[in-house]
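Subject: Sanity check before I submit

Could someone independently write out the structure tokens for this chain? I want to compare against mine line by line before I put it in a report. The sequence has 614 residues.
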Amino acid sequence: MVVSKTSSDFSAQGTIEYLIIIAVIVVISLIVVGLFVTVFNSPSQEIVDSSSKAGAVAVSGISIVESIIDYDGDSLIRLSNNSSDAITLTKVSVGGVDNNFSEQLVGLDSKVFSLNSLNSNCPCSVGQKSVKCEVKIIYTTATGITQTDYRTINAQCVNDSTPVNPAVVVDPIVSVLELGTIENPWIINNCQELQDMNLHLDGNYILGNTIDCLLITNFIPVGNESTPFIGSLNGNNYFINNLIINKPTTDNVGLFGYAAGTTISNLGLTNSIVTGRYTVGGIIGSMNDGTITNVFNAGKVIAKQTTSGGIVGFLAGDGSITNSYNAGDVNAAGSDIYSFAGGIVGYFDSGTISFSYNTGKIKASKNYAGGIAGYINSVGIITNTYNIGDVNANNEVGGITGRIQSDGGIVEYSYNTGNIRATNENAGGIVGSANSTFDVIKNSYNTGMVNASLTAGGIIGMQWGGIISNSYNTGDVNTTWNAGGIAGNLTFGTITNTYNTGDINAKYYSSGIAVVMLESLIENSFNTGRVTSISDTGRGIVRDLRSGTITNTYWDTFLTNQSTCLTDNNLGCVPTNNTPSWYYSSINAPLSSWTFGTDANWVTTATYPILSWQ
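---
Independent answer below. Compare away.
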């Protein structure tokens, strides 16, 4: 059931107690004839519906209909006698704590019983929504038989359950059908009601129609760092139009300023302008844990200083964003050296971004800009994403992310077609730069143009450790110094099962796979893209091999216009010379050392091989 709530109702409601409605039908049989329960699944919990309990097929004399527990360990529990015979309740034990009764329930009757002293074995802590408890019910049938049954329930947590005397029977449980719950969310029909979510930050909401916020000239973000939004909003596939938030001196700015453990779904922002100082997002400024699904932003997002994201400014914890996109311009405009601008997330500390994309223009005035995330700090995972928007910053610029800072960050199954530009250094079609010992990029590709003054690569600008695998580049790479088909600089890293067909151009130092290579490995890769160095000599595979190994790798001497693989020799590399067709077959060296097949790394074509996942 969905209940509409007007703007005035918000003020009258008061503070919502921490409450999740749990209705659990537990069947304890005298004569077992059948079982009927209806289960409703939400993103955060399983709820057993008791709304049809009056018409349910009764298989026993008693059932648990509703239960709540407060923070002091006191509880109310509604029991119903579903049989036609009277029964006598003698004991209810929750979490091992006994509450004794001698109360008769006549046939088809229900009563509410007060329990206490549950705080040690079945506690509800402040802020907790529900708690799972083991329940033992002992009762005597009309024929004098003592019956004992065991069940598990999810009890709702509230501030105060009163009364607390276990011998007292009360009826009914007050506020059991509280509005603003998952089952009965408040319907939002206008922008003022949207603004009034600030009155109930733990509430659950749903849009009743598309909302126009044109008449609210400066919307106040819902939730802040000290009192975050912890409820949910289901957009119901409606839009919020003309949302204007102008808070240039405020941190954590968005439709939701700060959210923790929240769920936002099925929502779109159109023609919006969201402006803040630090940590700004179209949907959420800062998000710790929680889930965003089926959401888009088609408005401008501006951080006057740092950290700006089309959907979320700052994402941490186990937060996830899936099936979402940004089509608006995102700008981190401040003078701070760490800018962090991303199409989906500005600063991605941890969590997952999946099945999402960006078409907007992304710009950081200083460093760290990416089509999906400006910066991955820790264990952020980006999977099945793409970017087609232009991305610009001074340093650390990537089609998917500007920087992967440490172990655990990864980009996989993603691609970029947008133009990537670093006015200074470290631009990559997928990642600007990375510092990791694990997988960094896999099963990804770039077709966009990559430009930098210093150090650019078709896949990554600077790779410090980590692995790039099963990826390719067809976009042109242009720099003054250090242009590589896959990587600009490769240090302590591995490049395996990759290829480049894009044109690689630099005034100084250019090569088909990596420019500078130190203590690294390149294997099972090839280059057919043209390599040009205006004031220097380019190389087919690596321009400056300082240390490391190249194996089972080749380049097309005609297409690349390069006669040598490395600076001084062809060690580990094989040139095509005048027989490129030799390299079309998987049985010829060095391809004979590669793995071919739909379940392997490569498949053959009429010309050069391609990766099997293509």
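---
OP: Matches mine. For the report I'm noting this point. The helical segments are 7-13, 191-195, 557-560.
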